[in-house]
């Protein structure tokens, strides 16, 4: 293996999941995760491609103290989730998967969801069984962001009641949804808002039907726009969440940001580069995007409005898990970068200025993360009655400043989360994960571990077993 060693860590064999010593090595402007399995050979995967420089993206973050443990160490990370004694981060976001059913069969579903609940899945339709689980999450995780997820959670027959129960326990309740029922079921969005839903994470892969056809199996753009309208009428904040694959929809990021800035109620865009997990018909490095590549595409496609130098690493999860671009909307529609630094958790420092910043207890980072996310993504103020907002693709939409003049809310964010798969798995990152999936009766499994699948498609953790 050639190239200067930047870090030493542990990874996995993509074939057998054996834990292997690993090195992050420099290759020109790139960084590669390298390891060798005695049985299956050498594996190299690019995890950082081009500027900003890999080493410039670091910031100090000690392991959290006082993390509640649910499991003992037996085989070691990632086999003892969770949380086992090796884990070094409190959860700041917990996914509560309330159904395995879905009204889509997406070719790239990390959860492998389908039309029916998985055999042996918990009786999630029973509200009496769900409420104690919500209380257990609150008791174990504290005041976190609760994500109602699935499958497709809007298929749950008691979703509104469940939302109300969650809103009494957590400072923020998020709905992860494909939006089909928000668009097609009159009054659903309004009822969820009335029952305490904080905001919607809306699967939204681009501005062309071809992207939806490849990634979701059918044309959905009109349905997604109808879901946006329903959320705006209900007063719900929305974050657009594209799964982005190189060569498929990575050329639409600028237009997607334009659409977001120009649409009532949308608070930001949360980009999720493609991973080879679950049911993914687009495997292979040709579709993989690293965080620096996403930043550069945003800069190119917005004519420099979104700049990599305004991005900053996270303060809650591991530094290479995400980036954050946060803006302040001023009267007249001006958009200026907000100070960043130690991520969503610490908006008072600049990116890269970590040498002078004392490392902080990451439970405090977790608490600030929840506070800042709540302020950034909760439902925005309604625009004045009668305000006309042209959609992306209109004549005015060609000039970005004209979009920004229509922005009525103070904040807007563009973020990205680089989830790991078996090819990019870095156990140091995994041990710092703060996005966790609840598995009854009281386990919290890091998101990337929960969705990890071997090269042959076999999952590390089953969704059919508690």
Structure, explained:
By secondary structure, this protein is an alpha/beta fold. Helix content is 23%, strand content 21%. The chain is built from 12 helices and 18 strands. The chain has helices at residues 127-141, 159-167, 180-184, 188-194, 209-216, 221-234, 253-261, 291-301, 362-377, 400-404, 427-431, 447-450; strands at residues 5-12, 19-27, 30-37, 41-48, 93-97, 108-109, 145-149, 172-177, 199-203, 237-241, 243-244, 266-273, 279-280, 322-329, 335-337, 411-417, 435-439, 443-446. Strands 5, 7, 8, 9, 10, 11, 12, 14, 15, 16, 17 and 18 form a 12-stranded mixed β-sheet that branches. The chain has a 4-stranded antiparallel β-sheet with strand order 1-2-3-4. The chain has a two-stranded antiparallel sheet with strand order 6-13. Strand 14 and strand 15 form a beta hairpin. Helix 1 packs parallel to helix 2 and helix 2 runs parallel beside helix 4 (188-194). The two termini are 41 Å apart. Mean pLDDT is 83; it is low at 119-123, 341-362 and 380-408.
Task: Provide mean pLDDT, rounded.
Answer: 83
Radius of gyration: 21 Å
Question: Could you tell me the number of beta strands?
Answer: 18
Largest β sheet strand count, sense and barrel closure:
12 strands, mixed
Order of helices and strands: EEEEEEHEHEHHEHHEEHEEHEEHHEHEEH
Global structural class:
alpha/beta
Cα-to-Cα separation, first versus last residue? 41 Å
Report the uncertain regions: 119-123, 341-362, 380-408
Helix content: 10-25%
Q: Name the overall outline.
A: globular
Quickly count the helices: 12
Strand content: 15-25%
């Amino acid at each position: 293996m050639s190239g200067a060693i930047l870090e030493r860590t542990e990874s996995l064999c993509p074939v057998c999941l054996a834990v292997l010593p690993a090195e992050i090595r420099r290759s020109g402007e790139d960084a590669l995760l390298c390891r060798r399995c005695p049985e299956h050979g050498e594996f190299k995967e690019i995890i950082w491609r081009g500027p900003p420089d890999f080493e410039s993206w670091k910031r100090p973050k000690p392991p959290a103290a006082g993390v509640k443990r649910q499991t003992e160490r037996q085989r070691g990370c990632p086999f003892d989730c969770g949380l086992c004694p090796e884990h070094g981060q409190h959860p700041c976001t917990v996914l509560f998967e309330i159904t395995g059913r879905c009204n889509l069969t997406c070719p790239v579903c990390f959860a492998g969801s389908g039309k029916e609940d998985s055999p042996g899945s918990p009786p999630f339709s029973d509200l009496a069984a769900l409420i104690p689980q919500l209380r257990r999450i609150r008791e174990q995780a504290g005041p976190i962001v609760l994500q109602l997820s699935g499958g497709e959670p809007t298929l749950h027959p008691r979703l509104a009641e469940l939302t109300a129960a969650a809103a009494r326990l957590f400072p923020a309740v998020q709905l992860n949804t494909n939006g089909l029922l928000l668009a097609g079921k009159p009054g659903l969005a309004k009822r969820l808002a009335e029952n305490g839903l904080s905001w919607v994470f809306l699967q939204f892969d681009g501005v062309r039907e071809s992207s939806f056809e490849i990634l979701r199996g059918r044309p959905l753009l009109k349905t997604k726009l109808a879901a946006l309208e329903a959320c705006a009428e209900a007063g719900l904040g929305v974050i657009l969440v594209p799964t982005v694959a190189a060569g498929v929809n990575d050329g639409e990021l600028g237009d997607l940001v334009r659409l977001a800035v120009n649409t009532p109620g949308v608070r930001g865009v949360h980009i999720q580069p493609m991973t080879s997990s679950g049911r993914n018909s687009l495997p292979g490095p040709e579709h993989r995007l690293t965080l620096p590549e996403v930043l550069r595409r945003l800069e190119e496609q917005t004519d420099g409005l979104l700049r990599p130098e305004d991005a900053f690493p996270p303060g809650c999860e591991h530094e290479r898990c995400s980036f954050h671009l946060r803006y302040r909307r001023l009267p007249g529609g001006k958009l200026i970068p907000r100070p960043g630094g130690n991520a969503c958790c610490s908006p008072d420092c600049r990116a890269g200025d970590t040498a002078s910043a004392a490392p902080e207890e990451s439970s405090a980072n977790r608490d600030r993360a929840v506070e800042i996310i709540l302020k950034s993504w909760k439902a925005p103020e309604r625009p004045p009655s009668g305000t006309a907002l042209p959609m992306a693709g209109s004549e005015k939409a060609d000039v970005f400043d004209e979009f920004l003049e229509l922005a009525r809310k103070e904040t807007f964010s563009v973020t990205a989360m680089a989830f790991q798969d078996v090819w990019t798995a870095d156990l140091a990152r995994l041990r710092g994960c703060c996005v966790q999936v609840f598995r009854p009766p009281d386990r919290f499994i890091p998101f990337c571990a929960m969705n990890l699948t071997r090269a042959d498609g076999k999952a590390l953790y089953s969704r059919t077993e508690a």
